[in-house]
């Protein structure tokens, strides 16, 4: 009876995943058609075909190489990671070192904080209202303290984290599917996504946070008490660095209740105890870090979010489709106190909701937000300021190449989700449940294309499943033709 319940939930999750990937695929097709095919059809078609041939050819080579030799497997993985490292370092030479947007706030504030200066001037300043960002600021301060105020240190560390992320994708793919070739494919299709790795030039908290969350998933899948305890550590530190921990925790809790508690048609309470250990250690680490930051005098608000309303001010704005918009920012006096700002934010949120209700605009808004987050260009390349070093034509072509990497992931992850309808390993839900939770939450708050970066490794594993299935299908059909 319990197994039947578990199977029903699994099917529902996979069906929701298929709907999600299908919607994203349709939206990506619309975006590519409107922004590339209609403008430069010959170039768009030619580059797309080249991308398919390249991915198909290299992927097929990785699929064909035997996987029963551990040394050979290590050599292939090391080769992939080495190629990525070289490309990532070349990318750092192509883009300026200038820090922009929120990244600039971290980079400029770190040396001042090390000199004892205050990190905010008033209670509605950046690090006052979004005090949770102080966690990553401490990391940047540590890097500056060790290596000096040289941005190359942050950039090289980002490349290191990206390499380790690819390694974790490999380990997770093997742990879940037991297929080395599939793991190779997952690593390959993620490493060629320029939209994913382009932000290594910025003081961005997403890569280190992403790495720690992936390690958390892997440690939980290991299944022992020590790994669950370490998972609490990585989950806690990851949440301090990149504050999307609640979404990850929600996915882990649901995974535990459905796939750990129910084991062979019986209730296995020992596994729930392990998850409780993970969550307790997480809470101790996160609360302890918040208290330490408060007591140190760095930020009297600890790691709190004192402006959670802003995400909804932007996220429910139909005029900007839930994305950052200067016109919305201009409606506020950012020098106001937090109390005045909060009152104005609540007023605007109510106006946004009333507008959506009166115009029946909810479905359109949610559709456009999902497209902006998952299906369109991630705009990560835009944050690098590449157009200041290269011509507009070159910059646009690089952005097209970046989007093609994302498009490959979108297409292959759709195939992967379809494959999961036929056969799934329950371990994959440790990745899918946080992904789906994140996708739902983002429908209500502010969206940016770069916010999908944390879950692109999960999409890549789905894409690896899809690409592996495609090769298997062709192998089966080719075998029948030769009989």
TrEMBL record:
This is Glycosyltransferase RgtA/B/C/D-like domain-containing protein. The chain crosses the membrane at residues 12-30, 42-63, 75-94, 159-176, 207-228, 240-260, 397-416, 428-445, 451-471. It is a multi-pass membrane protein. One of its GO terms (molecular function) is pentosyltransferase activity. PANTHER family: MANNOSYLTRANSFERASE YKCB-RELATED, MEMBRANE PROTEIN. Keywords: Cell membrane, Glycosyltransferase, Membrane, Transferase, Transmembrane, Transmembrane helix. InterPro entries: LipidA_mod_glycosyltrf_83. It is found in: Cell membrane. It comes from Companilactobacillus pabuli. One of its GO terms (biological process) is lipopolysaccharide biosynthetic process. GO terms for cellular component: plasma membrane.
């Amino acid at each position: 009876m319990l197994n039947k319940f578990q199977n029903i939930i699994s099917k529902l999750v996979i069906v929701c995943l298929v709907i999600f990937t299908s919607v994203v695929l349709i939206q990506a097709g619309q975006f590519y058609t409107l922004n590339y095919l209609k403008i430069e059809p010959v170039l768009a078609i030619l580059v797309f075909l080249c991308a398919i041939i390249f991915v198909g050819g290299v992927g097929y080579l990785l699929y064909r190489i035997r996987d029963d030799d551990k040394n050979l497997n290590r050599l292939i993985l090391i080769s992939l990671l080495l190629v990525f490292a070289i490309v990532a370092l070349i990318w750092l030479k192509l883009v300026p070192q200038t820090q922009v947007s929120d990244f600039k706030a971290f980079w400029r504030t770190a040396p001042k904080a090390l000199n004892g200066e205050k990190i905010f001037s008033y209670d509605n300043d950046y690090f006052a209202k979004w005090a949770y960002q102080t966690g990553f600021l401490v990391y940047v301060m540590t890097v500056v303290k060790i290596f000096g105020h040289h941005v190359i240190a942050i950039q090289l560390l980002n490349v290191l984290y990206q390499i380790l992320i690819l390694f974790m994708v490999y380990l997770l793919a093997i742990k879940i599917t037991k297929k080395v070739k599939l793991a190779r494919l997952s690593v390959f299709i993620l490493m060629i996504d320029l939209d994913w790795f382009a932000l290594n030039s910025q003081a961005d908290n997403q890569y280190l946070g992403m790495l720690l969350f992936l390690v958390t998933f892997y440690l939980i899948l290991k299944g022992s008490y020590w790994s669950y305890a370490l998972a609490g550590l990585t989950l806690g530190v990851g949440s301090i660095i990149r504050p999307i921990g609640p979404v990850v925790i929600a996915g882990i809790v649901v995974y535990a209740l459905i796939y750990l508690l129910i084991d062979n048609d019986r209730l296995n309470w020992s596994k729930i105890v392990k998850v409780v250990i993970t969550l307790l250690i997480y809470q101790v680490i996160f609360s302890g870090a918040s208290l330490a930051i408060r007591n140190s005098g760095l930020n009297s608000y600890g790691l709190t979010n004192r402006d959670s309303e802003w995400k909804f001010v932007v996220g429910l704005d139909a005029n900007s489709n839930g994305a950052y918009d200067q016109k919305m920012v201009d409606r506020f006096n950012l020098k106001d106190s937090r109390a005045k700002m909060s009152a104005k934010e609540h007023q605007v949120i109510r106006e946004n909701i009333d507008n959506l209700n009166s115009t029946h605009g909810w479905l359109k808004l949610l559709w456009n937000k999902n497209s902006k987050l998952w299906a369109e260009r991630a705009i990560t390349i835009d944050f690098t300021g590449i157009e200041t070093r290269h011509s507009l034509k070159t910059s646009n072509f690089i952005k097209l190449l970046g989007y093609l990497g994302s498009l490959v992931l979108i297409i292959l992850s759709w195939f992967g989700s379809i494959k999961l309808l036929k056969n799934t390993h329950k371990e994959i839900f440790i990745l899918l449940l946080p992904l789906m939770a994140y996708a739902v939450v983002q429908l209500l708050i502010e969206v940016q294309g770069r916010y999908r970066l944390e879950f692109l490794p999960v999409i890549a594993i789905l894409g690896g499943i899809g690409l592996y299935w495609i090769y298997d299908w062709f192998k089966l059909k080719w075998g029948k033709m030769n009989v």
